[in-house]
């Protein structure tokens, strides 16, 4: 009957809820479209089946990720009452000590006149409306983006100022309602008008764009501007305090109460069933909310958080045991990323309900790190380093006798076999029965051609097991192979055994499997990049070898290993795979040293999906990494603490792109100035902020930024770039602060963007500003510099021109002087040269003269001797003629005497002599003739002989006269030369 009633309830759902529910369960949109017509009834039945399956399988899903924020973290009061989110993703929390702001990394508190803040509302105008103790108003940003509080209650007349606390704030049609226990105040943007009540009001609610309030003793009423209007059967709640009203179904509400459970209301009121399997009457409901995936979240006073489905079935119960710091939940808010924020009596928490990941750990009774898992029928076996646990109904219980390290849990022909540090055990119920005491039992593998036999890998080699009489029986240890055999796979009857530090062995057995007959080791000598971290996997009936460098395949013909390009191209060469596991759909789950993920086949091509797994990248067990596919919807990853559960149905595409915003922008130099404090007037956060111009003395800037992506926690990364300063974007970093000091003048554009743990990158935001040059580099300064330089250049050039001219003139004078000196030197040199030449010529002439004189002297002496000889011959001939009587002989002698006289006369010889004499003595004879033409030839000859410094006797011989004739010749020459008696004739002739 209960199931039938649930079916009818499902049929009454609004279509939009159908679509939302289907989407949340991972149903493809095409199926939804096809089901809107005549297949709708089939889809309904299908949905019921899926829902029932979801409820059935919910028992072994883990706890959601919970982020707790304690009062010491946000530095405010312990109690929190209301939560809102602005349009850029920041969370605001009404706290006992003010309004808290959280942007994913930083907390900030607004004191609001030191009053307790009870309520908050994000207005369409971008204001944050707040209600507090005896006050209400709004926060809006000033010109620097700093939120400032404006009280609206302070403007009220004292007659309507007498309220205590403002517990709720709602907005409708640009009108804001402040709900107190005394009256409701309506603010239209300019004035505040009260809606009065004769009786005390209780908490107010908003549903279907209408506001309802509870009047103590009267029931539930509709709020209008004219007053309070009762609703049908609203008096049912005159003594029952309502905690919230939710949309449930078409024209139907779900009303939760503080201490009387929940009711469905559509004009009539019926109890809403909360199963006694999880709900107790003493639980008090402080608040409730309808989730976007169709579920209902209930926050209690004394039992934490319950998440139920539309029919009241429990989906999840989160309390202190699940990770909350407090049982009391005052308010629940679902943020834009579908995370649940809990305002608690002692702190704040965020519960990640929609994540495909959850955690199974000591909070559920599971102690230790996860190493192995198995699903068998309705039981789930989890192995850790502390033993084997049976997980059922959300609780884990240790199997007695399995304390210690678990290595494997296997279903062998319906039997649960445990591989343990202490040996091999058969698990029956909650007991462990020993099968073998061989230490370090890693794993069992069935022999393909002999299915009754199983090979087990241990610390010290291989063991043989046999299936007989419906039992698994230990046979013996196999001889001939003593290597540790944790990872192994059969390829036909060949067993590949991977050793983490040596390589991979190819093992062959004898027919009865008592001995290893062949064991070949393959490592770096056989195609692998090295000898370590080599593993073997069988995936989709393929043997895959992985190593510290990628994927490899074995070529039996060449007996060699070659890189497997299909996988290496997918991952990139150099990857190190720790584990591979496939599901029935052909998806391959993997653990790699730096990432986890799935290999999916899409459009006949393999593709990696890793982004969603970034959430748990730091949580998996890196000792013996393992991933176990329980079924297509439940995958367990061995964690450092317990196991990480992955539900592929919840791994939906993310539609909300992260945003980055400026928290604070400071400008400093001579003074410290706040330029921006995170908030922009109006709605939205602009992608570009303009900072204007700054003096050169204020040329340093500090930027603080954040990205409210709460699922990423403190792992949001940022990238910055200052255009006109940085060449490229900075590397991704967790640092949310950037400072630039001493910027030069120019126009700058600071940009920042964020990246979530899922690799989603936000659009960048910018702060554009200009640094003006210092006064000495301003336009006026440059103009002054230009004029000064121009005048300076003019004066300088003028001075340089004069200087140049003076220098030119001086240089020219110096050059002329130098030229003159050179000319003088040349002239002196020429003169010296000419003198030397003249001296040389004179010396030569003197030598020639000397030589001529010598020749003349020699010629004169020769002539003297000749004339003397001729004269002697003449005398002798004369004497002979006088003695000789022979006429004929006398005539001949006379002829001979005449010939001698003719020869003594020497006319021809004198001509030659005079020519030579003139050459030697500077034309003496010619000049003497010209000056003294009255001299006779004989006297000229006489004068020439005197110049030759010949004595009287020699001259007489030359002239053929007597010595007395020479003396007479002297007298005549002196007379013709006009010499006085005192003058010497020879000296005169020598000087002439």
TrEMBL record:
Signal peptide: none annotated. GO terms for molecular function: DNA binding. GO terms for biological process: regulation of DNA-templated transcription. Residues 808-846 form a coiled coil. Keywords: Coiled coil, Membrane, Transmembrane, Transmembrane helix. The chain crosses the membrane at residues 779-800. InterPro entries: Ig-like_fold, Quinoprotein_ADH-like_sf, Sig_transdc_resp-reg_C-effctor, WD40/YVTN_repeat-like_dom_sf, WH-like_DNA-bd_sf. This is Y_Y_Y domain-containing protein. The lineage of its organism: Bacteria, Pseudomonadati, Bacteroidota, Cytophagia, Cytophagales.
């Amino acid at each position: 009957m209960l199931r039938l009633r649930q079916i009818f309830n499902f049929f009454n759902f609004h279509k939009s809820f159908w679509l939302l529910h289907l989407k949340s369960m991972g149903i493809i949109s095409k199926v939804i479209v096809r089901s809107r017509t005549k297949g709708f009834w089939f889809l309904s039945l299908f949905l019921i089946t899926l829902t029932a399956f979801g409820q059935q399988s919910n028992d072994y899903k883990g706890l959601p990720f919970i982020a707790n924020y304690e009062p010491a973290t946000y530095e405010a009061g312990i109690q929190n009452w209301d939560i809102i989110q602005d349009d850029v993703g920041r969370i605001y929390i009404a706290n006992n000590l003010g309004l808290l702001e959280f942007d994913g990394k930083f907390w900030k508190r607004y004191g609001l006149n030191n009053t307790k803040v009870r309520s908050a509302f994000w207005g369409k105008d971008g204001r944050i409306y707040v209600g507090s103790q005896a006050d209400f108003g709004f926060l809006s940003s000033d010109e620097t983006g700093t939120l400032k509080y404006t009280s609206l209650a302070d403007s009220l007349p004292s007659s309507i100022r007498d309220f205590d606390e403002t517990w709720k704030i709602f907005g409708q049609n640009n009108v804001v309602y402040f709900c107190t226990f005394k009256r409701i105040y309506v603010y239209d943007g300019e004035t505040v008008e009260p809606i009065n009540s004769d009786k005390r009001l209780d908490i107010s609610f908003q549903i279907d764009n209408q506001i309802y309030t509870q009047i103590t003793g009267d029931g539930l009423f509709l709020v209008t501007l004219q007053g309070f209007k009762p609703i049908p059967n609203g008096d049912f709640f005159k003594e029952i305090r309502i905690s919230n009203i939710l949309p449930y179904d078409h024209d139907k509400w779900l009303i939760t109460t503080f201490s009387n459970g929940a009711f469905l209301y559509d004009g009539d009121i019926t109890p809403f069933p909360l199963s006694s399997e999880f709900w107790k009457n003493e639980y008090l409901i402080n608040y409730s909310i309808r989730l976007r995936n169709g579920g209902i979240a209930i926050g209690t006073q004394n039992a934490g958080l319950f998440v139920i489905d539309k029919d009241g079935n429990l989906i999840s119960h989160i309390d202190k045991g699940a990770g909350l710091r407090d049982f009391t939940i005052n308010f629940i808010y679902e943020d834009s990323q579908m995370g649940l924020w809990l305002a608690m009596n002692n702190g704040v928490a965020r519960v990640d309900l929609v994540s495909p990941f959850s955690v199974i750990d000591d909070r559920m009774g599971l102690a230790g790190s996860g190493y192995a898992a198995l699903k068998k029928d309705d039981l789930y076996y989890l192995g850790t380093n502390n033993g084997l646990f049976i997980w059922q109904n959300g609780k884990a219980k240790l199997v007695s006798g399995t304390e210690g390290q678990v290595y494997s849990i296997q279903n062998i022909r319906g039997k649960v076999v445990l591989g343990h540090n202490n040996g091999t055990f058969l698990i029956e119920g909650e007991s462990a029965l020993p099968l073998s005491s061989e230490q370090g039992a890693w794993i069992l593998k069935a022999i393909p051609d002999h299915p009754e036999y199983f090979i087990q890998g241990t610390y010290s080699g291989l063991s043989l097991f046999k299936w007989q009489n419906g039992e698994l029986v230990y046979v013996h240890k196999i001889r001939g192979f003593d290597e540790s055999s944790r990872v192994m796979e059969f390829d036909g009857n060949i067993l590949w055994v991977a050793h983490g530090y040596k390589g991979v062995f190819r093992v062959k057995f004898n027919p009865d499997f008592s001995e290893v007959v062949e064991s070949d080791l393959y490592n770096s000598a056989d195609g692998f990049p090295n000898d370590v971290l080599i593993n073997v996997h069988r995936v989709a009936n393929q043997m895959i070898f992985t190593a510290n460098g990628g994927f490899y395949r074995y070529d039996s013909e060449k007996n060699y290993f070659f890189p497997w390009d299909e996988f290496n191209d997918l991952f990139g060469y150099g990857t190190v795979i720790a584990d591979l596991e496939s599901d029935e759909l052909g998806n391959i789950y993997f653990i790699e040293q730096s990432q986890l993920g799935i290999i999916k086949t899409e459009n006949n091509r393999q593709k990696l999906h890793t982004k969603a797994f970034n959430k748990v990248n730091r949580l998996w067990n890196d000792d013996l990494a393992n991933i176990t596919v329980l079924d297509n919807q439940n995958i367990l990853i061995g964690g450092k603490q317990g196991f990480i559960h992955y539900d592929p149905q919840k791994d939906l595409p993310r539609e909300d792109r992260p945003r980055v915003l400026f928290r604070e922008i400071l400008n400093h130099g001579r003074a410290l100035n706040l330029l921006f404090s995170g908030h922009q007037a109006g709605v939205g956060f602009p992608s570009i902020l303009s900072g204007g111009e700054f003096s050169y003395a204020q040329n340093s800037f500090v930027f603080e930024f954040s990205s409210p992506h709460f699922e990423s926690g403190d792992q949001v990364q940022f990238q910055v770039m200052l255009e006109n300063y940085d060449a490229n974007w900075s590397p991704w970093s967790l640092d949310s602060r950037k400072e630039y000091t001493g910027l030069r003048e120019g126009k700058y554009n600071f940009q920042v963007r964020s990246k979530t743990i899922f690799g989603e990158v936000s659009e960048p935001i910018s702060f554009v500003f200009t640094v003006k040059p210092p006064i000495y580099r301003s336009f006026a300064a440059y103009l002054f510099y230009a004029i000064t330089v121009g005048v300076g250049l003019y004066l300088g050039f003028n001075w340089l021109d004069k200087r140049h001219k003076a220098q030119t003139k001086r240089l020219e004078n110096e050059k002329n002087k130098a030229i003159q000196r050179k000319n003088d030197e040349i002239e002196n040199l020429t003169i010296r040269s000419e003198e030397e030449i003249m001296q040389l010529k004179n010396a030569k002439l003197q030598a020639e003269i000397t030589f001529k004189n010598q020749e003349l002297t020699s010629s004169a002496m020769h002539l003297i001797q000749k004339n003397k000889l001729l004269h002697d011959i003449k005398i002798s001939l004369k004497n002979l003629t006088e003695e000789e009587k022979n006429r004929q002989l006398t005539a001949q002698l006379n002829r001979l005497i005449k010939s001698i006289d003719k020869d003594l006369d020497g006319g021809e010889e004198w001509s030659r002599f005079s020519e030579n004499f003139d050459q030697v003595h500077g034309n003496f004879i010619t000049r003497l003739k010209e000056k003294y033409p009255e001299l006779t030839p004989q006297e000229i000859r006489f004068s020439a002989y005197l110049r030759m410094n010949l004595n009287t006797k020699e001259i007489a011989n030359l002239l053929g006269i007597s010595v007395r004739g020479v003396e007479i010749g002297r007298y005549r020459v002196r007379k013709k030369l006009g010499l006085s008696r005192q003058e010497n004739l020879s000296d005169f002739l020598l000087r002439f």
